[in-house]
Amino acid sequence: MRNIILEKFGLFIVTLSFVAAVPLVSLGAKASFSVPHLSDAAISEKSEERVVMTTGLSHTEVVAFYKDFFQNLPDIKTIDRKDYVQILDHGNLPWHSINIDREARSGQLAVTVVRDNWVWILGTLVLRFIGVFVVLVMLFIGMSISGKILPLFSKSAKDHKDDFADSSDVVTDNDQELVAVAIAAATHFKNRQQGAV
């Protein structure tokens, strides 16, 4: 028994080590954003988390360029925000979003490409995990409340207990006969087993 527990614990530790190592290996990897660049875009800022490009094109031209480029991909969503248009990838591309500013600064429009990061990925997983428990707690509370209210609309539990107590207190001749037959049958089968041995 002890060996089985140690074996399962060892398997658990190996699995946990693998799961913990995958994000660490991924964090050390260099980012390649592989986002299509505009023809006249210049990279003004580049880091592992994001790339900022500037272009002389208008906001509508840049949005049209990216919408046209991503039109056949089902996991791309476009969201109009107050200060920028955001193109989100809900698939497995190496970047998370492309943010296109609405207003040009000094004649240049900024296009920011943000890479997927573990904070975003783990944050959504944690929110979903918490959401499941919130739903389960709400279901538990609803079922508890209905479990207290529904008996009020039917015959009360006390009445059921009283009915059961009343019927079990009364012993009829039929009940005595059944007990006698059961004892006789048990004695008969016991004697047959002893006689066969």
List the helices and strands and how they pair.
Elements: H1 2-28, E1 42-46, E2 50-55, H2 59-69, E3 76-80, E4 84-89, E5 95-101, E6 109-115, H3 118-153, H4 157-169, H5 173-196
Antiparallel strand pairs: 1-2, 2-6, 3-4, 4-5, 5-6
Structure in a nutshell:
With 197 residues, this protein is an alpha+beta fold. It has 5 helices and 6 strands. The chain is elongated, with a radius of gyration of 36 Å.
Q: How would you describe this structure to a colleague?
A:
This protein has 197 residues and is α+β, with helices and mostly antiparallel strands. It has a domain at 42-116. The protein has 5 helices and 6 strands. The chain has a 6-stranded antiparallel beta sheet with strand order 1-2-6-5-4-3, covered by helices on one side. A hairpin with a 3-residue loop joins β3 (76-80) and β4. The longest helix is centred in the last third of the chain and has 36 residues, at 118-153. The protein is elongated. It starts with a helix and ends with a helix.
